[in-house]
Amino acid sequence: GAVVSQHPSWVICKSGTSVKIECRSLDFQATTMFWYRQFPKQSLMLMATSNEGSKATYEQGVEKDKFLINHASLTLSTLTVTSAHPEDSSFYICSAGTGMNYGYTFGSGTRLTVV
Amino acid sequence: RKEVEQDPGPFNVPEGATVAFNCTYSNSASQSFFWYRQDCRKEPKLLMSVYSSGNEDGRFTAQLNRASQYISLLIRDSKLSDSATYLCVVILYNQGGKLIFGQGTELSVKP
């Protein structure tokens, strides 16, 4: 089945620094990947849709200059949280899939803590 | 109104019980439907797809009613290992295939 690898699984960083999260499709090509954020006791909230070779589509309320997305190849999308603040601390998850009728596979998630 | 709404939780049931979760969606353009399971502090994992004809996988049965824009999940003979949060998910074809999640329903199965 489709496998999505996400790295790192957890990261602690200082306020003001930037953190890059990678999402890779290991055994399939993904022209589209999705980035989600999940706060404790809440559901996953879509942040943006990452499109290979073009600009990402951001959901309302998500700052594109703060959450930089790059989808340079069919197997890799990266999310960079720039100038991180404690309120950016969250669980970030990517997903990709081989087809809409087969659901999407999620990466293992990245737990970001900004101190 | 949220695009996908689920029963509020938590559901606390004894082992062996049958439990049902409901989900409604507001966007009639929704084309694909799924139930995902999420364990604490882990990523969601696909439990099953949901079809108009209904589908069953062991102790789990999913139903879709397009006219009412309603999805359900039935778990029979609950096991302790079924304890998790169950997420109702719809895919919007007209918005690039993005997934919309319900807020999740927490299930706790007790001995």
Structure write-up:
The complex is a heterodimer of chains A (115) and B (111). Chain A is built from no helices and eleven strands. With 115 residues, chain A is mainly beta. The model of chain A has no long low-confidence stretch (mean pLDDT 89). Chain B has no helices and eleven strands. In chain B, the strands form two sheets. In chain B, strands 2, 4, 5, 9, 10 and 11 form a six-stranded mixed β-sheet that branches. Chain B has a five-stranded antiparallel β-sheet with strand order 1-3-8-7-6, with no helix packed on it. In chain B, β6 and β7 (60-65) form a beta hairpin. The radius of gyration of chain B is 14 Å and the shape is globular. Chain B starts with a strand and ends with a strand. The A-B interface holds A 32, 34, 36, 42-46, 49, 51, 57, 91, 93, 95, 97, 100-109, 111 and B 31-32, 34, 36, 41-46, 49, 87, 89, 91, 93, 96-104.
Name the overall outline of chain B.
globular
Rg value of chain B: 14 Å
Portion of residues within helices of chain A = under 10%
Main β-sheet of chain B, in a few words? 6 strands, mixed
Low-confidence stretches of chain B at least 5 residues in length (pLDDT < 50)? none
Quaternary structure classification? heterodimer
Q: Please tally the β strands of chain B and state the result.
A: 11
Please report which band the strand proportion of chain A falls in: under 5%, 5-15%, 15-25%, 25-35%, 35-45% or over 45%.
over 45%
Tally of alpha and pi helices of chain A: 0
